[in-house]
Amino acid sequence: MKNYFNKLAAIILTVLISTSFIFAQSGYHLRYKMQTGKTYRYKGVSTSKVTQEVMGREMTINTNVNSVDRITVKNQSENGNMTLIVSYDSIKIHSSNPVKDTTIFLKDLIGKRIKMDLTNLGVVKNKMMLDTIKNNSRLVQSFKNQSFNFIRLPDKEVYIGSKWQSTKIDTVNNQMGKIIVNSTFNYTLAGKEKKNGRDCLKITFTVNTKLNGKGNLRGMDLYIEGKGKGSGSADFDPNEGVLILLNSNSNHQMTITASGNRNMIIPVTQSTKTVKTLISN
Hints:
The chain is mainly β. It has two helices and twelve strands. β3 and β4 (101-105) form a beta hairpin.
């Protein structure tokens, strides 16, 4: 009888330990919950290195972009989807190459608004420019359609260690033509951490991209194809539903084929590091 009760007690203890472990693994329903009428400002720092080879000569261009991005929540539907107004408070670009160093303040973009419809999972459903930009320089045009990148949240409950995937197609239009970028993201809920005084969840990710496009420059037809890889992490405040910090690194290899008065094949490699930090809300 004593052995029976000992075995029974051991079974009960095992069950209690197992169930307590299960209940300790609290799940998360992650959603963007930015509040209507509030403005969220992010400091952005991006550094990139582009190396290209033209007619046997290699050229390296280093670029630093410093910006302050403003996101205002215009309204929010019952299902949690939001309409956002995104603009730059400031943006400065420093570029260096073998010929010269240049610093440019893109004043023509300051305050120019982009309207964005965002789901509470971070999917951009619609995006449109609300203001006219008179400056038609290639640099201004390349940045005018840039908007804040939100990480994709899972549609199901997740736990520490959970993984999910998303795909994304971006179209980049500029004066030279159009480039289509296909990306596949793999996310992992890595753990909890304190970030900027907030209790956050750390989400890590990897991304694989393929790109192709075509255009025209000075009478030459351009054909672009390439691929790339990247990784990064994000700190997300699950209580307020706000992205606190985003780090990303990427490397791309591209080939630009030019045909016209002169035929050329230009290999291009690009490495980019970007950090976005919430500075006020």
